[in-house]
Amino acid sequence: MSLFLPIGVLQQQTIGGGGGGGAAPVLESWAASRLVGSRATTLVCTQASGIQEDDLLVLVGVNDDTANFTPTFQTPSGWTSKVGYGSGAPDVMLHIFWKVATGSEGTVSLVTGNNTVEALGAYYFRFSGANLTDPFNVIKGVEITANSSHSIGSIATTVDKCLPLWVFGFDGAYGIPLSESGSGWTELHEQWTNVSGGGSHLAMNFGVNSVVSPAGATPSLTIGSSSWDGSTTVMFAIAPA
Asked: What backbone phi and psi angles, to 5 degrees, belong to 173?
């Protein structure tokens, strides 16, 4: 078994909400996790702070394997798998899981389903004011084989007051620092794995846009990396309650 040191970053902040005619979803807090030391098959995820009953919890796992496979994650107990994106072409994969909080959440780990040793990272989000039955109003994945300018495009919401986010994964820690361009898009965090064991490392970031009200298309997003390589991105909009 590979030994590893998980590094977690906690952030408490309120993003979204506001406006008349009903509240929009709010990103209340988030946490970042990554491997440091050695590659592994498991990442123990740092939990977002302040979780309360009936919050929406979203967990996005990112991995980069050693041999251009298409690595997958097992679905953690009590969570629902939404969708996974990525392949051996960009050599990075993202997978989204979600659940409605009980208020007594325990530790959650992401485990690679094919037991290949990976560079792993994750973001753990906590939202209030979200639709707890169908929380993702729209979601899309974008794979780019190799570039330093990663055109993600936009998404079009179908109901008012959704909260748009992105999570970006890059095949190499040398992609840091990352940058974003596009009206209203703001990066909130970026991180990279620092692991040994062959193959590339992993860089990732996430960010948000202003609440879309009324329904419609977000501005287009482009992510810039400091070097040329593959990427996989998920862009999604959290629906209001």
From this structure: -65, -20
Q: Compute the radius of gyration of the chain from its Cα atoms.
A: 17
Structural domains in the chain (count): 1
Query: Whole-angstrom Cα distance, residue 183 to residue 112?
Result: 36
Q: Report DSSP state, residue 184.
A: T
pLDDT, one tens digit per residue, over 136-186 is 999 999 999 889 999 999 999 999 999 999 999 998 878 889 999 999 999
Strands 80-87 and 5-16: unpaired
Residue 107 main-chain phi, psi, to 5 deg: -65, 140
Asked if 189 and 237 touch (Cβ cutoff 8 Å), the reply is no
Enter the DSSP assignment of 133: S
Cα-based distances in Å from 92 to 5, 86, 173 = 21, 6, 12
Phi/psi-derived region of residue 133, left when phi > 0, alpha when psi is between -120 and 50, beta in every other case: alpha
The answer to whether 55 and 44 are in contact (CB under 8 A) is no
Three-state DSSP state, 68:
coil
57: part of which helix (H) or strand (E)? strand 56-65
175/62 Cα distance (integer angstroms): 15
What lies within 8 Å, CB to CB, of 214 at 6+ separation is 160
**Full residue range of the structural domain in which residue 51 is found:** 5-238
Tokens of 146: 């190799």
Enter the tokens of residue 2: 């590979």
pLDDT at residue 137, as a whole number: 97
